[in-house]
Amino acid sequence: MKPDLTGAQWFKSTHSSGQTDCVEVAWLPEGRVGLRDSKNPAGPALVFAPCEWEAFTAGVIGGELDRDR
Question: Using CB atoms within 10 A as the burial measure, which of 7, 21, 32, 41 is most buried?
Fold first, then answer.
């Protein structure tokens, strides 16, 4: 089932330079989290369940997604 993201309130990290290569996040109903490319807001978005978001952010913080790994 594709979630309705019409009313989602998207935001960028305070660590973002606000220029390019940014992602935007939206807190969604039922604890879900949306993630999209700020350069293509009409494009596809990922939607994470709460446990998936926790695993994803832990991997980012822990360096598991670094390109040079």
Answer: 32
Residues 50-66 pLDDT 10s: 999 999 999 999 999 88
Q: Are 34 and 5 in contact (CB under 8 A)?
A: yes
Minimal CA–CA distance to 31: which of 9, 49, 12?
A: 49
pLDDT at 11 over 90: yes
| Contact indicator for 38, 53 with CB cutoff of 8 Å | no
CA dist 62 and 6 (Å) reads 32
Asked if residue 5 lies in contact with residue 45, where contact means CB atoms within 8 angstroms, the answer is yes
Q: Would you kindly state where each structural domain of the chain is located, as residue ranges?
A: 23-61
